[in-house]
Structures are given as structure tokens and as C-alpha cells.
Amino acid sequence: MTDTQYALLYSVSPANAHTALFNEYFNYVYSIVFNKLRSCGTKEDIEECVSDVFAAVFEKYEKNGFSSGSLNGLIGTIAANKAISYFRSLSAKSKYTAEIDETALSEISDDELLVENAEKKELKDILLSCVNALGEPDSTMIIQKYYYNMNSSQIAEQHSLTSAGVRMRCARALKKLEKMLSEKGFGLKECSL
Amino acid sequence: MSDKREISFDILENTDIETVEKLERDIPMVSEKDRNRIFEMSLKKFESGMNKSIDGDNESENVGVDINDEEFIVSGVEKYSKPKMSKAAAAFIGTAAALAITISGIWAFSHSNNKIDEPMQDSTSTSSYEEKPSKLTLRYAQDRVLGNISEQMCSYSLFDVNKDDVPELIVNCKTTKNSYFSDFYYFNGIDYVREITLASDTDEKIELRGVIKCNEAENLIWCEHHEESGNAVYKMNGDNTFESMGCFEDDDEFLTSREWIDFKEGYSEEEAGSISVRPQEIHDLARNNLLETLSANQYCSVVEYAYCEINSDGTPELIINFENMSGNKFSSLYFFNGADYLNAAGETEKGVISNITGNLRFCPFESLIWCEHQNSGEYSVYKMNYDNTFELKDTIEEPDTANVNNQLGSLYNHYNNKEWINIEFTPYK
User: Fold this and answer.
1) Looking at CA atoms only, how far is residue A28 from chain B in angstroms?
2) In this predicted complex, what is the ipTM?
3) What sign for the dihedral angle of Cα B247, B250, B254, B255?
4) Would you say the pTM of this structure is higher than 0.80?
């Protein structure tokens, strides 16, 4: 969806425009927010933040309109900044010691950090490529289990499998993943930080 | 804890947007219910934010995005050093505050003694403020009405009859090129509704449909109901209640001495418009699909077609005229189901209507269809309901050839007072 498409839709029906934007960008916003809050926020915190993002996007258009171009960047920026703000608030409340995030790290021009960053980036890319190499539905199930922390029954429901079936598939997929990572010189535990 | 349990892809946390996008497809299943709940939360926050802005409170929340700032400032909890106050300053402020409280207490006591006979102001009297719906809430409610209405057949006007700052909605629907009727809607706090309750002993509920005009000075609505004689006039009060002012002849002084706003074309450019919620292209596309399909029929050819609003739902029905191999013409009625034009058929109390085909005439104000079935020689009158279902109202089955004119005359007379219309067709090539 572009800003022009949204504007056109909005001029005809704000309700339809809001619904269309929400449906198109829900997964995108949810994944950004989840990425920031997965370790410090509850499901409710994540949902609260997601709703804040959409409210801010709707309000932004209502007051100033969208600048020309793709909405992806704008919504991504709003979502990331909202999530960071939530992260700070939640961390402060729970006395959670916030780890310096990658954005902050990138601002520090320290050689060691740069090397560490590059290594992390490489590991991330390798991990994702290895996960993708598992093929469907294993790759999705592995991400859902070890990144989104869904339990076997939740995953089973989504994939129309039994919980036992999910556990078995995940165990096999994990072994495969471990093997693939070790061939590239990494271990599974390194992914857990 | 097992090794497997310790595994977690924490490395992907706080990652770059590119990686997040890769993870987006595997997002855990968020149920439809949860999604709807989050959407509702967004809308509530949005409306609340907009209302705050309208009230002049432009302060951004402690967490979030300053939407007025293009750079979207991140905010949140930061370390805050409380400024320390010197002991001397604290002592001075404390003494001053205590003194102020004492003086104001003495003043209040003496003041209340002097005015002891005055009635106490009822604090609840100021709490009768009712929150007005935001523009967006109204727009949503209008959309819910207008969303099902065809652009080509209808236009609408917004006019605040009772001057409560919430406009009423008048939807004008064409039935033919030169004929139209209007529906009156008012906002009941949730939706725009048609049914009004008259403030009388009977609590009669009616709908204002017909030619509608308004008198601005006295909050009056003049409704020329098609199915009734005379012109009914209602007064709309500020609390959305209605009073009947009576029925009048066209030349009655009550009507002629007042100025009336006619909503046929919308009373102003700003607050009236043609409906574009459901573009006509949707109907045209469905119509073209149907005509193409029907044209492939080797036993009859499509000659002409016309849109007609029969059941007053704002979505035009389609009538197609065919010519069979013998050169006889007949019409068939189709209704729009949101995506396609379907042949009018359905189960009624008097049997199944296989289709409404033959020579057709319509009485849009009462949603009636007069149908002369050519194959069987039957005559039927159908009613098309708001939900696109049909009722067989009356019929002459297997007419007695010798007596058909009498039978037909009887049926016709029964419906003779109705305003039957013939449709203007567009040739199809």
C-alpha cells in the first residue's frame, strides 16, 4: 500500500482505510514490536504497544498526512520507536537491565564492538539461512518455538498437527539445524546468547 | 532443565529491520478475535488522541511518538535528578503555605455564614454534559449506511435539523431518471438509524421516506410519504425525539408560509455529496460479466438492460431484456449480492420462485414487481425485501382463457393505486 492508495481509500471511507492499513501492516508491526519486547514484555504489553503504533499512524495521517512514498518505512520507524520507548519503560519498571541494543552499539565507533557486531550479523544471517534450508513447515515451526516461544500445542493448532507431532518434528529439525550450523563453524548455544 | 529448553534464538532479538522482515512470515498465530481487539484498541486510542487535540491538549504521551514531529522522537523513562531545595527555601514555602490555608479557611467560613440562606449549588447539575461524538465516529457511522449504497443511484446530504451539532443524514435514491425518494437517518449515539419514535401515547415507530424537506428555523421535517396522502410534518427536538405536527395539503398555509430546504440535489456543496463508497464500477463489472455469460446463450440474445432500485436498499437491481429465437421479448430480474448479479429466485410461502421473468413493471415505493410470465400466461405480483428475498404477494395461476381479462382486472385493480413504472432500457451490443 502506498500513501496515495491510502489517501484515496481514506477519502472514500476512513473506516475502510484504517481496516485495510491495519490488515496489511499488522504482521509487520507485530514482528517489530515483538522483536524489541520479547524479553521484557508480556503478550499484553506487546498488544498494547502494537495498538499504540496504529493509533499513532492513524493520527499522523489525520493531522499531517503521509509524506509521499512507501508507508513501510514510516510505519516501521513509528513501530520501532514506540517499541524502544516501551522497552525503556518496561525495563525501568521491572528493574530489568537493558542490554544496549544494536542501534546504540552501532553508534559507538569501537573496533572491538564493530568486530563483535559483524560476527553477530554473520551468525544471524547463517542461522536464518540454515533455518530456511530446513524447508517448510519445519523452518516456521523452529522459529515459532525458539524465537516466538510458542508451545507445541499452539504450533500444532496453527499447522493442523498434534502436539506430539510438533515435538517430534522440532526435535528432528533442531538436530538438522545443529548439524548445519556446526558445518559453518557455529553452535546452537551461540544463538541463545 | 534440558539443553533443548535452553535453546532460544535470542540472537535475533533487537535486530535490524531486514531480519525482522524475514521473521514476519512466521509470526505466531494471533487469533481473529485478538486482532480485532487490538484494532479496536488502536481506534479508541486514535479517537482519544484526536479528541485531546481538538480540546487543545497537544501534549504527547510519556511513551510514544510525537506525531507532530517528522523525526518521531523516542521517549520513555530516563534518569531524572530531582532538584534539591535548600532547607531555608523549604521552610519559607512551608510557612507561606500554612498561612495561606489559614487565611482561606477563615474567609471561606465567614463567606458561607453570610450566604447561609442561599441554596447550595447542585454539583450534579454541571455533570449533565454528554460527550459529543467525534467527526470520525460520525463518519464511520455514515459509512455504515452509505457503504451499501450505489453511487449512481444515490446521493446524500448532511444537515443538522435539531441543531445539536450532530448532523442528520438524508440519502436520496433515484428510482428512475426523474423520480427519486429520500430516507431520513439520525445518529442515535451508535449508528445512523431510520426508525424514529414519535413522542405520543402510542410510541409509534415510523420511517421518514419520500420527498423530504427541512425547515431550519423551527427544526421541522416535511415528509411527503409516497404511500400516504398528504404531507406529514414532524418536529425534531434536541434530544432526538420527534413530534408530529400533522398532515397538510400541498397548498396549506403551514407549508407555504415557511421556507423549506429541498435535499434533492443536496443543500450545499460542503455537506452533500454523491456517494462513492461503493463505486458504480463494481455493479458495471458484475453486469458486464453477466451480460457476456448470457450472450453466449444460443437460444436467446440479450437486447437491452437497465438498472432499477426496487427494494430501496441502495443497490440497484438489474433488468435484462432478451429476445428468443421466435423474436419474442421478455425481461428477467437480477439482484446484486455484493459481488455478482444473480437471478431473482427464492423460496416463498406460496412456493418457489424459479425466476422473475416475463413482462415486468415495478412499484419502487412499495418494492413490488408486476410480472407477466409469458410462457405460462400467469400474472404475479412479488415483493422484494430489503435483504434481496422475494415474496409472492398475489398471482393468477392457470388463468381461465375466457375469464382472464376479469381475473387480470381484479388483480390489477387490487394494486391499481400503486405507482407502477416502466423502465428505460439501454441497448446492449
Assistant:
1) 6
2) 0.75
3) positive
4) no
